[in-house]
Structures are given as structure tokens and as C-alpha cells.
Write a structure and sequence with these properties.
Organism: Tepidamorphus gemmatus
CATH superfamily: Zn-dependent exopeptidases
Protein name: Putative N-formylglutamate amidohydrolase
GO molecular function, one term: hydrolase activity
Distance between the termini: 43 Å
Shape: globular
Order of helices and strands: EEEHHEEEHEEEEHEHEH
Keywords: Hydrolase
CATH topology: Aminopeptidase
Strand content: 15-25%
Length: 267
């Protein structure tokens, strides 16, 4: 893959996957699973109006601008699918009940009810599979070049869910590999005004860690998922502030990876 700011690869099967930046750049790979609320032709319709399609149920508002700024600051490539999660959620296994959801929060998704098998298959082959194939191809290319790949998935979450306020400003999500997460927790402990969620508002047990389980943990790569409350990244200045903060914290975490392991008795 050469440097690009468009589709990943060549051909219609990758037309909805966007790669921005140099594939070989830096030590990080930035992912944004829910970057877009776009509904491309040929995959059916969720059956919702424009107002609902602007809500968090259709995408992660603010996540893509932050991911773009973060990728630029870290000199990293950014990959994301350019289609709404209401067509198919690229951060869920294809056999998960909410892969093609019929209800999101308290909103029914009429276009997904009784979805014909051929349309579901088209969403898998046209959106889900090309996205994950592009991640694999990028990581394979970086591995062949001897590059480090720390995977960072950028998401956003709604401040109120089913009537319950969420107090966190940033959620740091991790699974078996908590190397990056632990460093981020240490950094943000020095910022008491920032409320940090430890596997909040979600955790891997909620089925939200699919992309990083498949591409990070399966390869033994350091990985972390970042959930930013979307009312805190609604404007360009706020997006820039969060990108700068996260870039500094992630750079420190990357340096920590180079430190020799400390035996338990020496802590």
C-alpha cells in the first residue's frame, strides 16, 4: 500500500474502506470503527430520518475528527469504514445479535427487521469483510517492514444512555493486554479534573472489543480502545484539545513499552 487519503486498495470490494496517511508511518495504527453515518447505495436503508441518522445510534459523533488529528500528531495511518454502523457494525462479530441491529437504545431500526439474507450477505461482503481485510493487510505490511504497530481504536459515547447520565470524560477499554491502558491510567491520574472510566462505559464483556480482539490481541500487539464522551468533542477546538492530550499520553505509553520489565518484588 502506498500513501493514500482515499480507498484502501483497488477495486469495488474496498471502496468503502478509507486509509489516510502513510501505511508505514510511526508506531501506531489508528482505527475508527464507527466513523461514518453514511448509507451507501446498494445495501438497503435503516429506515430512519435525517435527525436519527445524526444521533449516536448511527455512528460515533466527533470520533473521526479526533482520530484524524491523532493520526497526524502521531504520524500514523488511519483506517475506517465509510458506512453507518446501522448497516453493519464492523466492531461486532458477524454472528452477534447486534451486528445488524433491529433496535439501538430505544429506537427501532425498521430497515433491519426481517432483513433478506442476500442483503445481509452484501453488507458483510461489501463493508465488514473489506474493512477487516484492510486492517490485516496493513498490519502484515508493517510487520514485513519491521515496524511496531500499537493499535488504538477511537470511539465516542453519548452522555446519557437510556436516561442514565454517564459521568466519564474518557473511557479506557482493554482486554487481556493492558500495557497501553495502564500507562494511560497513570498519565491521567495526574489530571484529577478528567474523569476516567476503567472499562467504562463499556468493557470487552459487552461485546464491544471485537476489532481489537481480532487484530490486536490475536497478534500479540499492544492495543487500547478510547471512548470519548461526545458532548466533549462537538467542536473543532475541543476535538483538537482531546487529540493533543491523547497524543501526548499515547506517546508516553509507547515509551513505556521500551522500558525493561520490573519484577513484582521490585515495584
Amino acid at each position: 500500500m502506498g500513501e493514500t487519503n482515499g480507498s484502501a486498495g483497488v477495486g469495488s470490494d474496498t471502496a468503502l474502506v478509507r486509509l489516510e496517511g502513510s501505511p508505514a508511518g510511526g508506531d501506531f495504527v489508528i482505527l475508527c470503527d464507527h466513523a461514518s453515518n453514511r448509507v451507501p447505495a446498494g445495501f438497503g436503508e435503516p429506515g430512519l430520518g435525517e435527525e436519527d441518522m445524526r444521533r449516536h445510534i448511527a455512528w460515533d459523533p466527533g470520533a473521526l475528527p479526533v482520530a484524524r488529528m491523532l493520526a497526524r500528531l502521531l504520524g500514523a495511518p488511519l483506517l475506517y469504514p465509510d458506512a453507518s454502523r446501522l448497516l453493519i457494525d464492523c466492531n461486532r462479530p458477524i454472528d452477534a445479535p447486534d451486528s445488524v441491529t433491529v433496535r439501538s437504545e430505544d429506537t427501532s431500526i425498521p430497515g433491519n427487521a426481517d432483513l433478506p439474507a442476500d442483503l445481509r450477505a452484501r453488507r458483510i461482503s461489501g463493508i465488514y469483510e473489506p474493512y477487516h481485510a484492510a486492517i490485516d493487510a496493513l498490519l502484515d505490511e508493517r510487520a514485513r517492514a519491521g515496524a511496531q504497530s500499537v493499535l488504538v481504536a477511537v470511539h465516542s459515547f453519548t452522555p446519557v444512555y437510556r436516561g442514565r447520565p454517564r459521568p466519564w470524560h474518557l473511557g479506557i477499554l482493554y482486554g487481556r493486554d493492558r500495557r497501553i491502558a495502564d500507562s494511560l491510567f497513570a498519565t491521567y491520574r495526574g489530571e484529577p479534573e478528567t474523569v476516567i472510566g476503567d472499562n467504562e462505559p463499556y468493557g470487552p464483556w459487552d461485546g464491544v472489543y471485537h476489532t481489537l480482539e481480532r487484530h490486536g490481541e490475536a497478534r500479540g500487539l499492544p492495543c487500547v480502545m478510547l471512548e470519548i464522551r461526545n458532548d466533549l468533542i462537538a467542536t473543532a477546538p475541543d476535538q483538537e484539545r482531546w487529540a493533543n492530550s491523547l497524543a501526548a499520553a499515547l506517546s508516553a505509553a509507547r515509551r513505556d513499552l521500551d522500558m525493561p520489565a520490573v519484577a513484582a518484588g521490585e515495584r
